[in-house]
Specification:
The protein is of the alpha/beta class. It has 18 helices and 14 strands. The strands form four sheets. Strands 6-5-4-1-2-3-14 form a seven-stranded mixed sheet, with helices on both faces. A hairpin with a 2-residue loop joins β12 and β13. The radius of gyration is 26 Å and the shape is elongated. The two termini are about 30 Å apart.
Amino acid sequence: MSKPLLPYHDIRVVEFTHMVMGPTCGMVLADLGADVIKVEPIEGDKTRELLGSGAGFFPMFNRNKKSISVNLKTPEGKKVVEDLIATADVVIENFKTGTMKKLGLDYETLSKKHPRLIYVTNKGFLPGPYDHRTALDEVVQMMGGLAYMTGPKGMPLRAGTSVNDMMGGIFGAIGVMAALRNRDRTGLGEEIQTGLFENNVFLVGQHMLQYAVTGKAADPMPNRLSSWSIYDIFEVKNQEQIFLGVVTDTQWEIFCRVFGWTDLQADTRYATNNLRVTNRATLIPELRARFVDVAAVDIAKIFEDNGLPYAPITKPQELFNDPHLLATGGIAKIEIPNGINSGSVTHTPLLPLTIGGQRLGIRLDPPYQGAHTKEILSELGLSQATIDELIAKGIMVASDK
């Protein structure tokens, strides 16, 4: 029995991107079935060579894509890319403002030739007073209130992953979906723009509205007044840590009963959630003292058996062996195309959704540079002799991997 077609199996995307934001946009569409062709510069996407916290960027955000590597500064390379765009439904880019215009590959230029084209620009800021600035995820976290909310007072701290880059790319993909629907009605494409800063502001919107509703500024998360009485990390036996939550009066009754703490349940200071929140200064130290000699595994079992929320404190690398992810197909095998472990097999997280009960899997490993150059040039009608000549002249790079 053949697999059902993915939603965007008949959509072609040509992607001029690097780092995280633009590649995420393309990855979402690729996972949903689009034929995504990554156009890399002749020297390759520099993201492939990043060290440290950037080492995982390329293999994470470039799966299910094809790679063609071309020197756009040559007339022959430019012609190949223009012919490729002529076959596309969508173009994605996230380079510095003006870069695509200099190449004649901006929306204004391309839309005159291809009125059905949908063009996604992923930038630091949407057009306005800030759009000349250079933005990075950390920059907009600092200026957009997220770093303030994440760290303790006086110690702004960026979130532990590229939240704005990834979500900005996801919003770009949502924009493509909307534009494709519009094109069904009008026959015309349009330009989609997403901004890191605006994405960050969306993320902290709940704290902006908290101020509007209460008249009180939100405290940073480590200092916040929680809406729930028990919503904390506890250090337990052998200095292990575990997160525990008791967020309703019903859960409080269960919590006290299963641990045999009838004295806490009878204490009028803790009779309701709001009273427990008000009296956290006495409640939480008391609970810390009671948990200090109890093993994390025992606490976890009691919480799980009784439907109470809890979580181990997990490091990212430990998720490769997470039993839930392994059982549900939440991670899938890929071959790493870059770095010291190039050529080795690992696993990568999939989009957190199912369609028809199925996860959206891996059709193509993250590509080696130019892995699909020959295939794509052939599709464009170039002869084998012409392809060989372009490669020999250094106008194109092709890989057999």
